[in-house]
Amino acid sequence: MKNVRILQESEVLSFSGQVFLVLDTRSKDMSGGVTDTNEVRLFVGAPIQYQSEHDCLRAVVDALTTAGKWAYCFANFHACGRQIDLAVLTENTTLVIEAKGYRLPLQGDKNGMWVQRGPYGERKIGNAYQQALDAKNALRDAIQRHCHISGYPHAAVISTPTIPDGSTLTPGDFKVTVGCLTDIVRLLAAPTELCLTADACEHLAKQLNLDRAITLDAALSQDIFAAQNACNAYLCAFNEFHAPVAAKLVDDSYKYDAHEIDASQVRSMLGMGTQGLLIHGPAGCGKSLLTASCAIACIATDSVPILVSAKDFEGEFLRLIDREAVLLNARSANRLIAISRSLGKRIMLFLDGYNECRDDLKINLTRILKVFSRRYNAGIVISSQQNLARNDLLSLRTVEVARPTEALKAAIAVISAHEDRSGSVRRLLGAVNSGLEASLVGQVGAFLTVGASRFALFDMYARRKLGVAAAQGIRVLSDVAATLVERTCFSLSVREFDRLCDAEQLDDKARQHLTRSRLLQMRGDRISFAHELFFAAFTAEAVIRSADGNLDHILAALASPRFFLSKVFIFGAVEDDRMLYAVLDRTADYDLLAACANGECGLAAQSTARQMIDRAMQDTLAEAAGLRFQIVGEGWNSVSIDGESLRPRLKETFDRLLPAIGQQLLNGKYLDLAMAACGKLDESIATFSAGFAEEPKAKRVKLQTEVFHSAYVMDRKAAISQLVYAIHSGILGFRREAGASFDSALEDAWSRAESPGQYYFLLGLTRCTSSDKMPAPVIVRLLKNLWAYPYHFQLEVIDCAGYAQRSEEPHRTDVIDALQALLGKLGPVVNSFLFHALDAFGALNDDKQNHIPTIQHEINNALTTEGSDGEEAAWALYCRQFDHPFDTAYWEEIQGLDEARQKALFAKACRGAEAPHVSFMGILIRRLAEFNDPQLGPTIARWTHLPDKRSVMPQDAIQAFVEAHQALGRLDVELPQSRGELESAVDIALLACGELEYWSCRQLIDTAQRSRGIDIAHGTLLDYACSASAGALLLTTSRYFADDGNRVSLVQRYPELSVAICRVALTRRDEQVSYFAHERPGTTESIGRFAIQVLAEVGDISDLQLLRGLCDLESYGTSALRAIEKIEERMSYRPT
């Protein structure tokens, strides 16, 4: 330290055998005289263990040295039974400091416990204001014992280095100040009434039995320095290992809370105190790289990262993080955490690949993460392809990682226009779907011929990795893939792998090449492909080898669910043009045709597929020109396309090409032909409408709506009708995002549009654009003449107008004005659409505020009106929170009511609701149960009755049914004696599911009585497992799946019962029925797939044989394969 003098031996004072040294800084002139005195004397009661006290002491010493006055600092000592972090005594002030190293946001006032927020939720911690107040009073009492004084010290809570963002803390008062390090200079300058002389300070130190420190560093614990060195060694090793991986991340945009952010913003979220983050997205798209990048970045924010892989979690979390810590120079994970906390550093846990954790361990892993986060105030970052099991346990913000764009794929591949003058590599990049494949393109794309397939990409990569052992290695890899497919499993034992290698006479050198290639991975004694795409590629190689030129063999493989993930690779591996053309001519697989058109199966397949699309679009145009309409009845659907004017063979061709056509539209192709077909269809509509020119206006308007509805909305007999409907309904299922030329092609199409059908077609496509250049002037023109267009066209224009909020001024204001001008002119339904569109622009904010007094009056009216009128008013009021132009205002006012008024309003609403209008009823019942008032039981009980089988909202009806049973159980209220007529097996099974929900939630009764109730429901469901029980489980469980696993379903609560039911259901698939009479076609298949899903989640190895028997069935094959893979992963079982 500058100007620090250690006192000579004669200057050393001794009390009670303890040595007290003085820090003395004196500036001397050349004659040796002291011109200025600046002595800061340090005393400690015990070694300083925490970084926050360390930082406070340094800041205080720096401030005192600068001030140039004598001072005494007492650190980490006890006085009158109270531990005190730091006391500073000068000639003008006495200050007591309570040092804190908060890293998470917190909330606190002068009274009561303080609350800290983390990924685990909230927890209560000590009130630092009160701690500082107690400390200053204890110091005063200690001083008072030895000398008469007046006044009190001042006190401060100092958070180092600052108070965490997002905190809400009291600033303190004249007794205690709450602040951070930057406040220390001001606090030391503030005088207090209680002041001691230097001699009194010396005497006080003696009475408190404090040790004097020679230097500032000597005052600080040596353990801290040892901890700092150990921590730095770990961080250096962490950076050395993970930084190269993080450096591979190519910056991309990610979705977060409806916003787009880049990687630096994701990293900065952690630096700004975000407690938890879920990095979510599909396989091979950079989640692991982003996770590693965030882990490296957090080191600069004074955090200590721990990065582990979920696939290595086997039930013991400490062993998992211990293994990682030891590999990076730490003694143990516990030691690393302990030293990090002593240094005031935040622990950041990064868990990569949550979806790769065994299914039976996932809930336990989530619980462990919560406990870890809570115990150590640790941040949590998780990457996963799926949502977390019981994700309600952790408070995580979600960053969505999408499939790579064309620009990102080029950046990943590190391909420049100069290096790829022929454009062949970029064409290949356009065909691949993931970051993994883009990386392969960068490594081996230059070695491939123009127009290579995705299969050729993986084959070339394998050959380059295998080197001189390529031929032998690929033969073994295809044998491994063939064996896995044949046995319907996903890995082999090392023993089986050795036998395969021996059968292929793979020598030791080739075996070494294969091992080093990392195309396979070993976990324990099991060997599997390193990535599912490598499995798919070598499965394709195995199929081609076994087919030996047999067309039927290839077609059978392409049609088999066993090869669903490999079919694009299989077709890409076909190099005989004759076979290629024959397969394309005979296949009805629309996914395969779309992949071909996109270039995934090679140039020849792409050219052929696009020729097929060209012919289909030309035929579509010709068909549209000759379409005729006819009146077929009254009311809705009274107009239909005349079947004689259709081209029957076109429909079959168009059906299988529809996804491929849709994807090509997103690539900016065929818009001109589609627009022309819409124009021809509009001419046919005009011809039909001209025949009714003399009819009354009301009839003409009705017919105008009906013919448009038939042509573009519902009929779907003509090819152009089918295409437009698919675009608007969202069923097209685009394989990838819009291409680079889509926005410009769409903008050009808007400039040429003239007829309603053309506008309607473009309105649907406009939802797919990322461009801010919305056709706002066209939208305004359409809005101003909206009255002249058909009903469905009106709704679509209004809906699309909401997207124009991104437009620049004055277009944005023009759209708002046009929307407002239509209010009240086109009927109540259109009016509601107008309100929602205006709300998207924020144009209703003033109206919402003005409507608040009306809402308050409605609330008072509903609460004070007795009888059915008040109850119906309360229900209507409750629904307006979710379905009203001012729904947010209704929500805020109702949620702002005190508990008593809220409970009364909700109870009335529950009594006022009547079937079939049951939307939001499940939410209401759940909210009523939260009041924990058994007197609400009779109000809820009527919703435990069986729902109407003809309900127009079956899922809402089931939700109300289940919530009512759970609510009565939690409230400890008896179920009604009768809950509906038991007319069939589905009635009995559904009631039994309700009873299981009820008894599961009724925890306040005798265990034996509860067990009897559960056993009766169990028995009932097993009795009807042959037909109705699986369907009942599906109905009562699907809402939980939709809720992202936030709540426990019957399947999770009763896994053995669920598995038993689903095993029976799968053996008697054709007998399965559902509760609702109007279920759509395919319900039996839906129940079967649900049963497979249950076995995947909670089944065991005994279910594998049953599932294997389903693998070749079109309806169930893909689901069964996924289930087998899950069970194998979960049970750590691999057949040999």
TrEMBL record:
Domain of life: Bacteria
Pfam families with a match to the protein in the record: NERD
Domain NERD: 73-146
Coiled coil (UniProt feature): none
Name of protein: NERD domain-containing protein
